[in-house]
Please model this.
Amino acid sequence: MPTDALFRDAPYERSCEAVVMGADTDGVVLDRTVFYATSGGQPGDSGRLSLADGTIFDVIDTVKGDNGKIIHKLAEGVPIPAVGATLHAEINWERRHRHMRMHTCLHLLTAVIKAPITGAQLTDEKGRIDFNLPEMTMDKAEIQARLSELITDDHPVVANWISEAELDARPDLIKTMSIRPPVGAGQIRLIDIDEIDLQPCGGTHVARTGEIGNVTVRKIESKGKQNRRISVVFADD
Ligand SMILES: [Zn+2]
Model:
């Protein structure tokens, strides 16, 4: 049975009650979870699972398993919870919220620089995107100005679901060359930032661009003939 991924429709949920469906040294699988599993350049969540008696299991990372399962990785050598146990699952919200802010910021960057994406990575401090772009026509200051404007203007960020057939009919929506959009049950999630950016994405996002806060465009690098890498970092926290 796949894990019910609550973060998809409720990225602001910090905790949930869940039942242990499987647990071994590889990690813990729950029936439902608020823990985001590593994908699309966004790190998996950390946090804790706790039993009613106060026993705590620290989650150091979250990854995707087979058949839609989400695996909560525990530190090596610690005890594991029993299958069937009900527990409280709570993410490290501060870290996740920074992932949401940076992730949404990277969406804006792909609106500023209109080129195919070949890769993206983010942490709770910084992010970067690789573009398939032989020549960069914008300098750092110009990218910074446009990005800051999109953040300050506080645009809404919404998620809509479309069918795979609808996506196939609109190949222009696919900006990322190397990563296929998340598919499952024929439905794909489309992230719409006020008609500034529209693309399929399975990550977690903030509700409005103003929530991203101040970010600094750190550098533009050439990584190969075609590849231009733009790096951004949170400016003041
Ligand atoms: Zn996204």
Q: What stands out?
A: The chain has two domains: 4-91, 96-234. The chain has three helices and 15 strands. The mean pLDDT is 92. Residues 103, 107, 191, 201, 203, 205 surround zinc ion (CB under 6 Å).
